[in-house]
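Standup notes
- DV: blocked on the single-chain target, sequence here:
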Amino acid sequence: MKAALPYLLLSGLFALPVLAQEPAEEPITVAWRDKAPYHYNDNGIAQGFLLLRAKQIFAQAQVPAVFVQTPAKRIWHDFEYGKKAFCSIGWYRLPERELVAQFTRAFHVDPPHILLVGPKALPAIQAHKKVNALLADPSISLGVIDGVSYGPALDLLIKHSANQVEHPTVSPTNLMRMVAANRVNYMFADQADWQYLRSREAGLENITEYQFSDLPAGLERFIVCSKDVSSAVMAKLNRAIETRPPSP
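- DV (later): unblocked, structure below
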């Protein structure tokens, strides 16, 4: 009987059990919108300081991810309709967004917004000492990009403003051009947007950068994920963010 054992092993009658391997973790889709210099496409190459930071966070957290460029409205449409295994980067935290998504810890803090003022409007803007007084002036026009949030505090001020508020559906660059052409008196601008675009876009030279002491403080930006992303994954991302404190 002992002599027959090698034959039985070779014949498979005594085949050793094969341990089942756990399936590889499916990568999360991480969407980013075109918003230079945070995250943008330059001649087919994805760039931006916040995009790089987000990639480092997912890598450090050991959360597999595929980063894709997606229009902003499409991103929030996907959150609203429950797209699975889905995240996006660089968003402000707003109550309506918390209804459809979950947020990590903040991973970036903006400086306060500034005003960009058209050449003919500067004296009228300077006549006001506070931004609240400026927003109460019905003779002044304000350009606000349609569908864009400037943060809860500034959004509320704009909502109740007595200014002639226009809501063009344009990019930040095109709204800046409207200011430069005196089509609107002023706009609020993200400082990083302005510093990036002023050196690259023609026709913005006659815009004046202006600040008020009572402008709301700079806002935090977050990584946002669909509700199905597990608490374990969110915890991994938060731990990675904690080792890289929010950049100013």
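- Follow-up: The chain has ten helices and twelve strands.
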